[in-house]
Design a protein that fits this description.
Elements (H helix, E strand, L loop, with lengths): L10 E3 L2 E3 L4 E2 L3 E2 L4 E3 L2 E3 L5 E3 L7 H12 L6 E3 L5 H4 L2 H7 L4 E4 L3 H9 L5 E3 L5 E3 L4 E6 L9 E5 L4 E5 L19 H16 L3 H11 L6 E4 L9 H12 L4 E9 L4 H15 L5 E5 L5 H8 L2 E11 L2 E2 L1 H13 L5 E8 L5 H12 L2 E2 L5 E3 L4 H21 L2
Parallel strand pairs: 7-8, 8-9, 9-10, 14-15, 16-17, 16-18, 18-20, 20-21, 20-22
Antiparallel strand pairs: 1-6, 2-5, 3-4, 6-7, 11-12, 12-13, 13-14, 18-19
Bound molecules: MU-OXO-diiron.
The site of MU-OXO-diiron has 8 residues, from α2.
């Protein structure tokens, strides 16, 4: 068939590309779209692995038909119940009423609550195997990667891991489906932004999952989003290992909230001083312009974080409040933090940032400049002290 996408002689990609949706989970920007990957294994028994978000269901059903024709599906493996993968289950159940739905004990209550499905269930536990004929599916639980019911499915005869969201990426599959068919440089930020935004809160569960998967002889990783990994398996595993240990590089992310440019002047001054003191990798973001998605992604890359805010009605500026709420929510670890601000009267920006510093428990830099109305020479001196404290600490950590 002209539109079949073979992964092996008997395993097929039947996923879809979504270039219409602006926000993943209705929050995270998708400038390069997203793919929902689903797979079919043809054997004595036929298994479908995960489904797609319901908005692309028509294409999905076409893709399934191009592989199955008149054959019926015997099993649907549900590695993850988030609706971007479970959204088409009800349609598949209507199409293949005899099909058994394979999940674990945490899958099925969600299946019933989301879709009212409670029949034809096959519960699997850690290490269980499902025999399709030539293909043997082995199930491993990976709770909180990134939902409690998540599991992965390992096809042991071909060494193929159906990994759910783990090793996934934003970005559609433009022409290629394998990592060596796609422009990975073009997708680089979408790969790390997917990890940092979607999985990043769950560093420990990711480490637990990696420890479990280390024993498997992996030839291919088929995630539910992004490229199928076959030529860069070690690389993507190494990245996940580094990210989930919160390991970062020498560099500093400066985020500021500024209404009329005074706090921004302080941010630029701090950045200049950092560069003069030898810190070359600097990323500056205006919290009112850049979505937290990109800020969080940069913070996953670099050890230094400097946050500055003007005051607003006796508190912090709203767009910076959003950033620090996100950082607290994600519970990102192991950074060096500097804070600064400006006020025209009672203040509030720096005060809130200091509270954030206490809550997040990162190492902090002592100097905390706060300009009155506009920064003057003495404020820039304090900015320099903040930059110097940060540069010295980073140099010390990366010597
Ligand atoms: Fe891609 Fe957690 O769903």
């Amino acid at each position: 068939m002209h539109n079949r996408n073979n992964i092996t002689d008997n395993i097929f990609w039947v996923g879809t590309n979504d270039r219409k949706t602006h926000l993943f989970e209705n929050y995270w920007p998708l400038p390069k779209g997203v793919a929902y990957n689903s797979y079919i294994i043809l054997d004595e028994k036929v298994a479908i692995v995960d489904t797609v978000e319901r908005g692309t269901m028509e294409t999905y059903i076409d893709n399934i038909e191009s592989v199955l024709g008149d054959r019926k599906a015997d099993y649907l493996i549900i590695n993850h119940m988030e609706p971007d993968h479970s959204g088409s289950i009800r349609t598949l159940v209507e199409r293949y009423p005899e099909m058994k739905i394979v999940g674990n004990k945490k899958t099925f209550p969600m299946l019933e609550r989301f879709y009212g499905i409670k029949n034809n269930l096959l519960e699997v536990k850690e290490g269980d195997q499902l025999d399709l004929g030539q293909h043997k599916l082995n199930f491993y639980m990976v709770p909180m990667l990134h939902w409690p019911e998540t599991m992965v499915t390992f096809e042991s005869n071909n060494g193929i891991l159906f990994s759910g969201d783990a090793f996934g990426a934003f970005g559609t599959l433009d022409g290629g489906i394998f990592d060596d068919e796609l422009d990975l440089e073009y997708l680089e930020e979408e790969i790390s932004r997917y990890y940092s935004n979607i999985v990043g809160k769950y560093g420990r569960p990711t480490q637990n999952a990696l420890a479990k998967l280390r024993g498997l002889d992996l030839k291919m990783i088929c995630a539910t989003h992004g490229p199928i990994w076959r030529s860069h398996i070690d690389d993507i595993i190494a990245k996940y290992d580094k990210w989930s240990k919160y390991q970062t590089d020498e560099g500093c992310v400066i985020v500021y909230a500024s209404m009329y440019g005074n706090t921004e002047k302080m941010a630029d001054n701090i950045a200049r001083q950092l560069v003069k003191k030898g810190i070359k990798k600097i990323r500056i973001h205006d919290s009112s312009k850049t979505h937290p998605s990109y800020i969080i992604n940069d913070i996953f890359k670099f050890r230094g974080v400097i946050l500055g805010s003007c005051a607003y009605n006796g508190d912090i500026f709203p767009s910076m409040e959003t950033v620090i709420n996100e950082l607290e929510h994600m519970a990102i670890k192991d950074h060096v933090l500097g804070v600064f601000g400006s006020k025209s009267w009672g203040g509030g920006g720096l005060k809130r940032l200091n509270k954030f510093a206490e809550a997040i428990k990162w190492e902090t830099i002592e100097a905390t400049p706060e300009a009155l109305c506009a920064p003057h020479a003495e404020d820039f001196d304090k900015c320099e002290a903040l930059a110097e404290g940060m540069a010295n600490r980073l140099k010390d950590l990366y010597k």
